[in-house]
Specification:
alpha/beta; 7-stranded mixed β-sheet; 23% helix
Length: 153
């Protein structure tokens, strides 16, 4: 899955559906890096990811204050979705380690979705991990443009 053209989403339901569709392409060990302004729909897209991975999508909430949420799922060998929000953290490796990022990124039965990814994440992402990049932008009419860049392999 690689969208040559951004996907236009006119509602939260459509953004969630985009996440559900993306989940069909994910494998255990994949990392999804989510970029976009505040309230662009990153957590809504993660709700769709969890739905697509046969997890309880209603349980998804923004991890802004707890920084890491973990959800059970059961699709194609994926048992867990780790949802991380690094908005309030800088690039300091010690801070990222304290959140448990090193551990969740090495969980080979999980998919890790990271909002507000930091450059220092590259330190811990396994070399064989497939990295998906999702960029969500808000249009003047409040719709969203969602660009999904698939891993090279």
């Amino acid at each position: 899955m690689n969208t040559a053209e951004p996907i236009t989403s006119a509602s939260a339901e459509e953004t969630e559906a985009t996440g559900t569709n993306l989940a069909d392409h994910l494998r255990a060990g994949d990392v999804v890096l989510l970029e976009g302004d505040l309230a662009a729909g990153k957590t809504t897209l993660v709700r769709g990811l969890l739905r697509g991975l046969s997890g309880n999508a209603e349980a998804v909430s923004s991890p802004s204050f707890v920084l890491l949420q973990t959800y059970d799922c059961s699709a194609r060998g994926i048992t867990t979705l780790h949802h991380v929000d690094l908005y309030r953290l800088g690039e300091n490796i010690a801070d990222l380690r304290e959140v448990g990022l090193e551990d969740v990124l090495s969980d080979d039965t999980a998919v890790v979705a990271v909002e507000w990814p930091k450059n220092t994440l590259a330190t811990w992402i396994p070399t064989d991990a497939r990295i998906w990049r999702v960029r969500i932008s808000t249009n003047d009419d409040d719709s969203r443009q969602i660009e999904i860049i698939a891993p090279e392999s």
